[in-house]
Design brief:
Elements: H1 6-16, E1 19-20, H2 23-26, E2 30-32, H3 33-40, H4 45-50, E3 53-55, E4 61-64, H5 69-78, E5 86-95, E6 107-116, H6 121-138, E7 144-150, H7 154-170, H8 177-185, H9 196-202, H10 214-229, E8 235-236, E9 248-256, E10 264-270, H11 274-277, E11 285-291, H12 292-301, E12 313-317, H13 320-336, E13 342-344, H14 351-361, E14 365-369, H15 371-376, E15 378-383, E16 390-393, H16 397-408
Parallel strand pairs: 1-5, 7-8, 12-13, 12-14
Antiparallel strand pairs: 2-4, 3-4, 5-6, 6-11, 7-9, 9-10, 10-11, 14-15, 15-16
The structure holds adenosine-5'-triphosphate and magnesium ion (MG).
Amino acid sequence: MKAPSGAALSALASESFPKFVQSKACLPLVEQTDLFSRSIGEVTDIVEKEMYSFEDRHGDSLSLRPEGTAGCVRAAIQQNLLATPCRLWYGGPMFRYERPQKGRQRQFHQVGAEAFGFAGPDIDAELIALSARLWRLLGIDSAVRLELNSIGSPEARGRYREALVAYLAVHREALDADSQRRLETNPLRILDSKDPGTRAVLEGAPSLADHLDDESAADFERLGMLLDAAGIPFVHNPRLVRGLDYYNKTVFEWVTDALGAQGTVCAGGRYDGLVAQLGGRATPGVGFAMGLERLVLLRAELGVAAPAAAPDVYVVAVGEAAERTALAESERLRDALPAARILRHAGGGSFKSQMKKADKSGAPVALVWGEDEVAAGEVVLKPLRGGEQRRLPLAAVAPALAEIMTQGH
Ligand code: ATP
Ligand code: MG
């Protein structure tokens, strides 16, 4: 299998998500702090501990974006992208003040996809299928598993929160300090505590699944059936709540066991209230974001690191006249064959040393110019992996290369 290039990933994403929110045009790296605290939530890890916030010259609080959804929704509202259902994607650096370690950086990169205006779980399934397809392309599908949960409507979650707090308050002393604090601030996050004492208490806790509203429960069931039909296995993880306030109904994570504690490579869910909350007309939304550094690490861990892209042709030229011709002809070839990767030798050197480089480049063929070829208006096409070399008139080079490229693919 050929490793997908960045361009292949972009093409895949744009096929399913045609409108590209250009990061420079409308997804700035810096937003009003308030945008993040209102959408992600005041008492979440990201807003409480992880944002890079600063005051600008007017005393307004700005923050480096810790994630893409809030800015995407803001931009989509302001640019009137939400009048009809639409699918958007973006990519770029995100910033979080965290302890740097393997798979956890303070500046990392996400690719995210968001779909607006679709209320049913079929779009959740499509987003999940899109990510599953990416894992196959990247050769990591056997190392990731899909964990799914429904966190219901805000009302259902409110009722569940009360039940959970009532139960946990009785066992307060057995909870870890962080969870005791969260009892007042963000009790649902206690569900994904890793503390053994807290986990033991949670064994007997009321279950979120029992408190779901009918619509969320029905949508969750339908999502499961759609994924089954698409052959995408999943695990229902009733403790999956995600750390951001804007989610409702479906939440999901793609998780690997190969990266230790930094095991989540992609996460997302539904956020049906966010557009209205940020001032737009009520529009359902759902999306995910994947962490590129973790995907790269996982590929390395699995030994599927991308091979360096070899050029299609390496251009060798010995002597000044040959160099001039080679440069001009390489440009003409690039015009004639836009898809061809043409690597022209730079820096001079003997025929032997240039041919060594040509060989090392991994290109299947070299184009070789010496004084003789220049004088004759010809060039030598030299296969580097066996086969006879040919001397060709210049006009015949582009068709010959095109043929070699089709054979190679
Ligand atoms: P974690 O639980 O690992 O802190 P998260 O829940 O904070 O992850 P999200 O906010 O959902 O992560 O971000 C989506 C994805 O972005 C994560 O699954 C991960 O792949 C990546 N990611 C998040 N924070 C970092 C970071 N500091 N460094 C590298 N990748 C990150
Ligand atoms: Mg985090």
